[in-house]
Amino acid sequence: MDITEQCSKVKCVSSRLTVSSYAVLGLLAIQPWTGYALTQQAKRSLRFAWPKSERLLYSEPKKLVEHGLATATQESVGQRNRTVYTITDEGRVALKEWMATSPQPPALEAEALLRLLFAENGTTGELMAALTEMADDASSLYEQVVTINASYLDGQHPFPQRTHLSVLFATFQLELFDVMIRWVDFAKAEVATWPATEGVGMTDRTEAILKLIKQRRSVLEDL
Q1: Of all helices (H) and strands (E), which one includes residue 8?
Q2: Residue 65 belongs to what H/E stretch?
Q3: Phi and psi based region of residue 199 (left: phi greater than 0; alpha: psi -120 to 50; beta: remaining)
Q4: Domains defined along the chain, listed by start
Q5: Helix H segments across 81-203?
Q6: CA-CA distance, 84 to 35, in Å (whole number)?
Q7: Considering only CA atoms, which of 65, 56, 66 is closest in space to residue 23?
Q8: pLDDT reported for residue 9
Q9: Angstrom distance (rounded) from CA 49 to CA 23
């Protein structure tokens, strides 16, 4: 099959793939993986950018095999059998084509923010607890990213040829978690001034925040 035929076949398949499909395909482009190893690597990397893929790791490889973008080989390890997934030439073509497309807009998924949005249905104490947990989670993730990346200086990167990509990826995560932690401190100080979560409306501080937003200035730094 020449490259033209490969591209034609891939274009027919690409419309049926999700971003999670490409996330798994990207891992397979690094090396072959077992289903278990894919899950472990997703916990190490994908969850910091596309956590949805972690839930789909057991179904996505099978989908890629069905589309001819990967192969599945059975191996025996002692008394156990395992499936090893390997990217195909068509899979590499699909991955290259996906890299040239426009990415989806960024989307933040944080339940604590959803609880803030509907906080009038609860108490200030409950909102404070949700915000505290958000900061604690962000702090924990921050430390995990630091630990993973600090090990690279000791030559512990599993794919040293990809160090430049992993470290640049990490800088975004660290900055994001840092902002989340600082924002929670700001938000908790604001909530502490409310008599309740319901019916507070426009306060002097709320008006000051809106003016900073209008000026496109950092609320965290200017209040």
Answers
A1: helix 3-14
A2: helix 60-66
A3: left
A4: 3-99 (1.10.10.10), 111-222 (no CATH)
A5: 89-99, 111-117, 124-150, 163-191
A6: 7
A7: 56
A8: 54
A9: 10
Alpha carbon dihedral 150, 156, 158, 161, in 10-degree steps, equals: 80
157: which 2 tokens? 């990167």
Distance CA 56, CA 18 (A): 11
| pLDDT per residue as tens digits for the range 96-123 | 999 999 999 998 889 999 999 999 999 9
In this structure, which amino acid lies at residue 177? F
Q: What is the pTM of this model?
A: 0.83
- Cα distance between residue 69 and residue 13, in whole Å: 9
| CA dihedral sign, ordered 39, 19, 9, 93 | negative
What six digits make up the tokens of 41?
């690597």
Do residues 97 and 7 make contact, with C-beta atoms less than 8 angstroms apart? Answer: yes
